[in-house]
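Researcher: Go.
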Amino acid sequence: MLDKNGIAKRIAKEVKDGDYVNLGIGIPTLVANFVQEDLGVEFQSENGVLGMGPFPFEGDEDADIINAGKQTITTLPGASFFDSATSFGMIRGQHVDLTILGAMEVSENGDIANWKIPGKMVKGMGGAMDLVASAENIIVAMMHTNKAGESKLLKKCTLPLTGVGCVKKIVTNLAVLEVIVGGFKLLERAPGVSVESIKNATSGTLIVEGDVPEMKT
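Model: Structure:
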């Protein structure tokens, strides 16, 4: 079973040279720590940063340089800062190749719910609705089950939706899955995790074809 860093490390393998990548709040922010240094990747944060680097070491933080989740970050040579209008112009103009988001629920047809739990105070949907509507490739980083042990990969989302039919791939602490017609196709198992345990943790339709390899992180 993977921890949050393990999930981020596996997702980093999905990032390609030359990609412009938006990192959502939570586990996705960790991805920048694991991308190969020889790849020319530009990480974008919707609060107006292009060229984010990994998180700073303790003592090296600059409180004026933060991501959309208000975490302190580093920037790489050539990084730029701009207003939210420019940032969302980049997002809505489909200049982001890959979006990596956290989620509370994902349905087997690729719907995502990641912004609200009814009855709990939230500040709003934020930029997630723009990201899911504009990105060509959306990968979700999340735990396979919630704190109560209930599956977060469902036949149909129960929470308010952020986007419809937009998720392409999901990386959880248990598995790597692709959203295809008919359900979640199991691509890889986390180290030490059996196919049976993934089936038991998945409420949506799980498609298993042949031997499923163990993921390499």
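Model: The chain has a mean pLDDT of 93.
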